[in-house]
Amino acid sequence: MDLEVRHLRLVCAIAEAGSLTRAAASLRMTQPGLSAQLRRIEAMLGGVLFERRPAGALPTPFGELVLAKARSILPGIDELLADTARAAHDLTSPCRIRVGSVGAPLLGHLILAVRESLPGAELTSRCQYSPVTLLDELAAGRLEAAVLGDHPEQELTPRDGVVFAPLVTEPVFALLPAAHTLVGGTRADHPVSIAELAEHDWAVPRPDGDRTREYWTSVCALAGRRPSTPYEAEGRQLIELVRAGLAVSLCQATFLPPPGVVVRPLAGNPLWYRHILAWRRDGPLAPHGDTLLRAVATGYLKTCATVPVYARWREQHPHAARTRVPDAA
User: How many CA atoms lie within 13 A of 62 on its CB side?
Assistant: First the structure.
């Protein structure tokens, strides 16, 4: 892991709060999650930054050195970001639209909707694993719109100048090898319990950048289970681990599995994922916000219909995972 600006901000936040508990609350993180981040930063820098005491966290001499450097560096970075945001804003016009997305089934629908609303626009896109990174870029004026996502009790904090439009909160499903014992001869919509999954090795995303792994772990803990997680992977690599029969995992309900992998609902629907469309309040897409949201929501519903397991789940749960579709003007 390379040192990033957000790591310096995290260290400064702990010092300012005086305790990991208060810092975690201000950062909208859990205390265990913040402690894990701090340990990784300390391992990367090569020394202990804070002395943990009952009354709070005090910087060590090594920590004071790091804090002094961080506090001298961060103002310059903030000034650079402000200057580049202004420059980007000056360059931005209805003819230049930049959109971003996490791994979700909405990006294509968003791009098509932007093209429909602004047919002469020069449109570019980029994807990030972390919704926080995309939100930072959106707030700084380096994106005009973004597809974001979060989990219950880990909601993203809205930023000034950014419109948040939650689209739908959908269930999280189990991802299994096609020949797995939990698949057997059951129907494709037969649910699998967290307790059953926890008896097998898991493939999980990395802990940095996105809080998905932390959310999965917390829900398993509530169920009294702590699965073995020997495999850390994302995207294609995670799918290949599951396909090879080495692990089970979790996925978005709209995920259409390739051959050798199957998707099953989770019993009791203990895990959820929220899709969010966001755009700059003063950007060129602002006048088209409802139109974009309506088009993306309609596209999402079409995607749902192409995923058999999720389509059946929606039929069985007609009042859950309801999609927000603004009325046409």
Answer: 10
Q: Which residue, 272, 271, 254, is CA-closest to 263? A: 254
Amino acid at 8: L
- Interval 254-302: pLDDT, tens: 999 999 999 999 999 999 999 999 999 999 999 999 999 999 999 999 9
pLDDT attached to residue 11: 92
Is the Cβ–Cβ distance between 200 and 246 less than 8 Å? no
Q: Could you tell me which of 184, 170, 141, 199 has the C-alpha nearest to residue 313? A: 170
Structurally, the chain folds into a number of domains equal to 2
Q: 197 and 114, same structural domain?
A: yes
Domain of residue 300: give its range: 94-329
246 DSSP 8-state letter: S
Cα separation, 134 vs 147, whole angstroms: 8
Place of tokens 């020949």: 179
pTM for this predicted structure? 0.71
C-beta of residue 311 within 8 angstroms of C-beta of residue 190: no
Q: Which of 40, 65, 86 is the last residue in one of the domains?
A: 86
Q: Which residues of 221-242 are buried (b: 16+ CB within 10 A; e: fewer)?
A: eeeebebebebebbeeebbebb
Place of tokens 């972390």: 130
Please tell me the predicted confidence (pLDDT) of residue 187.
61
Amino acid (1-letter code) at residue 117:
S
Residue 218, helix vs strand vs coil: helix
